[in-house]
Every structure is written in C-alpha cells, then in structure tokens.
User: What shape does this take?
Amino acid sequence: MVQDGRFARYWDFGFCVAKRSFDSNNVELDRGCRLRYHETPLQVRFYEVDSYGVVWHGHYVGWFEAGRNDLTQRFCMGPLQLKETNYLAPVVELNCEFKLPATFGASVIIQTTMERTEVAKLIFHYRVLDQENRKVLATGSTTHVLTDLKGNLLYRVPQEVLERIEAMQKYLGV
Amino acid sequence: MVQDGRFARYWDFGFCVAKRSFDSNNVELDRGCRLRYHETPLQVRFYEVDSYGVVWHGHYVGWFEAGRNDLTQRFCMGPLQLKETNYLAPVVELNCEFKLPATFGASVIIQTTMERTEVAKLIFHYRVLDQENRKVLATGSTTHVLTDLKGNLLYRVPQEVLERIEAMQKYLGV
Amino acid sequence: MVQDGRFARYWDFGFCVAKRSFDSNNVELDRGCRLRYHETPLQVRFYEVDSYGVVWHGHYVGWFEAGRNDLTQRFCMGPLQLKETNYLAPVVELNCEFKLPATFGASVIIQTTMERTEVAKLIFHYRVLDQENRKVLATGSTTHVLTDLKGNLLYRVPQEVLERIEAMQKYLGV
Amino acid sequence: MVQDGRFARYWDFGFCVAKRSFDSNNVELDRGCRLRYHETPLQVRFYEVDSYGVVWHGHYVGWFEAGRNDLTQRFCMGPLQLKETNYLAPVVELNCEFKLPATFGASVIIQTTMERTEVAKLIFHYRVLDQENRKVLATGSTTHVLTDLKGNLLYRVPQEVLERIEAMQKYLGV
Assistant: This one.
C-alpha cells in the first residue's frame, strides 16, 4: 500500500487509497498522486472492543476526530481555537470503509490529511494503520462547513481562517 | 418531507430523503418512490451531547445500529441470531449526512430500511427524525458483508439467511 | 430481593439493597426501610457489550444518568432545567457494585431514588434490574453538589430548588 | 498533594489521597504511607467533553481501565493475557471521586497502583492528574474478583497468577 520506506516521525508519503473520495475532484490522483498524512498514534482501549473481539466500527469516528484535532491544533484550527475566533466547523458528512479489524492490545496510527477545495468546506481524509505492520485497517473522510457561533453558514472562508488552512495545506503538501 | 399523516406504530410511508444514496442513481425516487421504514424511538442521553450542546456526530453510528438491530431481530437477523446460525455480518462501509443538530432532552426516531441488492451484501438506510416535528436530523447507510465465523467472505447468501432477508424486505415493502 | 409483586408502572416497593451507601446516614434502613424507585426501561445496545460478551462496566454510569434524568426532568431538576435556573449539579462521587452481567438483547430497568440529606448535596441511588426476571444486576449511587454557573459551591440549597427536591422526594416517598 | 519533586518517568512518590478506600484495610496509610503509581499519559478527546465543557464523569471509568491495562500488561495480567491462562478478572466494585474538571485540550496522567490484600481480589487505585500542573482531578478504585472462564469464582489466587501479582506489587513497591 505504501510505496517506500522513508517514514519521518509524522509523515507518510504514500499512494492515495481513498479512491472514491477524491476521484471526482482531483484527476491527478488517478495518475499516482502522493498524499502526505499527519500521523497520530493511539492505543486500542479495552472498552472499544465489541463482543466479536474487534474494535466496534463506531469508535473509528472518534479516532478520526482525534487525528484531525491533533493535526488542526498545530495550526490554530482546533475546535476551541476556531471557537475563540468566533467560528465553528461542524461535521456535515462522514464516510468510512472498514478493511481489516483492529483488536485489543494493538497500537494504531491515525493518518490525517486535508483536501484542497474551492468551496467553503473543510474535507479531511483518514487512514487507520496497524502500527506494527502498517496495514490499512480503515479509510474515511469527514466534510465540515464553517459557521459563525450562531450556526449561520459561511459561504466564504474568512481570511484569518484561510491563512491557517493554507499553512496546514503547506505542511501536508496538498 | 413526509407526504401523509397515516403513521402506523412502526411505519412511515414517506419520500426518500437519503439523497446521495439514491437520487443520482435512481430517477424513480424523484417521481415519488415511497420507502417504508421501521421506526425505533430513542431518548437523547446527556453523555451523547458534546461541548457545542448538540449530539456528537459519532453517536449517530450507535443510533443507526440500535435501529438496525431493532429491525433485524424481528427476523432472526440480529447479531446474536446470525452468529447462532454460524454467520456474521460485519460493517464494511458507513455513510452519514448531518442535516440538523439533535439536542439533549429531545426524543428521536431512528428509521431503518433495507436496500434490495443482487450481491451478497446487506445495505441498510437510516433517517434520524426529531420525534416532535418529524424533521430529518440525519441520514445514513451501512453496508455489511456476510462471513462465516472464521471471517471468510461469503459470495452467495445462504438459503436460510436469504429467507429471513426476504421476510424483512416483504415487511419493509422494498 | 423484592418483597412483593405489586408493581405499578413506575414504582418498585422493595428493601433497600445499597446498604453501604445509607448506613451512616439513616439508621432506619437497617430496620428494613422500604424505598420507592422511579423506573426507566432501557434496551442493551450492541456497542455497550465488551469482548467478554457482557455490558462493559463503565456503561452503567450512563445508565444511572439516564435513570436520574428521567426522574429529575419530571420535577424541573434535569441538567438543562437547573441550568436555566442558574445552577449546576456536578457529580462529585460515584459508586457502583456489579452483581450479575447484562448481555446483548436484554432489556433492563434502571431504578432511581433519592436520599434525604441535611446538607446541600443531592444523593441518588440506583439499581439495574433484568426486566425479565427482576434480578438485580448492579447497584450504585452518585453524589452531586450544587454550584452557580461559575462553579462556585452553594452551601445552602436555594429555595426554588428545594421546592423541586421536596416534590421529588414526596413522589419517591423518601 | 504531592510531597516532593522527584518524578521518574513512570513513578510518582506521593501521599495516598484515596483515604476512604484504604482505611479499613491498611492502618499504615493513616500514618502517611507513600504509594508508588504507574503513570499513563492520555490526551482528552473532544467527544469525552460534555455540554458543560468538562469531561463527562463516566469517561473516567475508561481512563482508569486504560491506566490499569497499561500497568497489568507489563506483568502478563492484562485481560487477554489472563484469559489465555484461563482466568477472568471482572470488576465487581467501582468508586470515583471527582475533584476538579478536565477540559478539552488538556493532557492528563492516569496513575495506577494496586492494594495488597489477603483475599482473592485485585484492588486497584487511581488518580487522574493534570499533566501540566500535576493537580489531582479525580481519584478512584476498582475491585476485581478472579473467575475461571465459565465465571466460577476463585477463592484462592492460583499460583501462576500470584507470581505475576507479586512481581507487579514489587514494581509498585506496595
């Protein structure tokens, strides 16, 4: 899945696997676009494992969020930081594909990256990897709109937020 | 959103609102396709509400599951019942769109229906309604494969499972 | 555990089993005090069951809360209602004893009652029963202080709150 | 709360604060017994924060468990490791006291230690600290019995388990 072994602490240069999420937006991906992911390590918790002995699928939503916040907080785009700037970024869409089960005792890596869009939306893509063998356990995406604190939709990204997004995109190389 | 007021205890005859799942694929829906949903009432719990004062988006995954199990258990297709027949139906894909926030104190209705497919997959569609005004708060879907207890994928639905699915589809009118 | 079969819809007249929680405050209990409980029925959800096939012990905390809110909301003492009156009632202590496991597919009843205290604290007691056989699966208690919206501790229960508490205690017969 | 600044990576030498949990078992504690805690760092997750803006009290149960498993796994006493040896250690009692709220963005430390008992029970004690200022946010304890895989209670700790417990107690200095 991953083409080469050059992993920095927080980086994974790999082929995009979240095919469905990208292809209508970005034809480059079909030609082998490399995405860079921010990596957040997590330990599977006992209570996250269901009666089938694998992590219950709904907990991946919390993992995606943990990865996203770990990324966005470095660019003043975390939930609290956005709120202090008088904005919210609620999730309006969530997609997840489950490839392989995660089990108790495993360490996983949440990989998070961001899509470059023309509209006033934030689109994050995720991969959950087994830390030991780097196999992809799940992929997914979340789409966020921007609102003011009263929940009114913004149709344009405010300049102060745009600067943070651009810094994050530069970091991610997207 | 809902065309008429004839609600039986467990039934909602309404226009399909799960746009993404249907409308680009199925023009019939625009001409008034009626789906029937199994309904499961739930109370929003305090711990499901996040620091923005609305139900955290990840909890909808548990709500979908509660609706699905409430439906499938009536047709011996619940997780335990399937397991007793030596099958599992793990989630391989999850989609959710969030329309309006749910808040603490609200009562919601989880509507669940099932798609008729040609492949050995179970595809469920969900709507979360505000119980008071019947506004749609969220829509979503989950896709499940069938495996044996060792996790080996089944490429054909076993006869005993097929009979249950058909009974459920008859109940749902799909 | 329960002495007689006369169950009203929301009432259970039974011997107090939460011995440890009461004994220092209320000697009457040792002489066989009967408590009345408000009852809240719940379905066990699939995601609440852990890899041992039983409800994970931490989920009982959410169940206690669901029972407590179901009770307190009837007396304008729910979290939102208190907040509207400019008070909060945060949990400062939690105790739980686990007697028998709850499993997926089970229906449970959360029984909630309230202790009569001389101090500015709310002390709730809980029992979780199997709905089918009325066996006690768990017992527990939570202690809440009263604060203003800034978190300052109240050393006296405000009159408007006291009236609600007394109405609730009258309902509970404590 | 903590007497001196000599913190090793995983150790905290401090006065016991979980007064109530110990006093009937261990009179030494009243005379200022020092406990050593195993430390597990955690990031507060967004979904763990409730509508009051603080971590919902029930999530501390999962944190205690994360700390306990991080400790016990080092001594082959984790849930899976015990199960492989044909034993289970279900929680039969849980206590928690909440001192100060934890908020989103905070890093916390779960401190875990174990009580030395004469009976066939495992009793763990916990403290949750704010990582930045080392203030105690919560304390608690869990009591576990030992059973075989069928759930039959063990009245004596098996030798192979006893050796692991003693190694853990030696590590903890209890």
Remarks:
- Residues 1-33 of chain D have pLDDT under 50 and may be disordered.
- Chain D has four helices and eight strands.
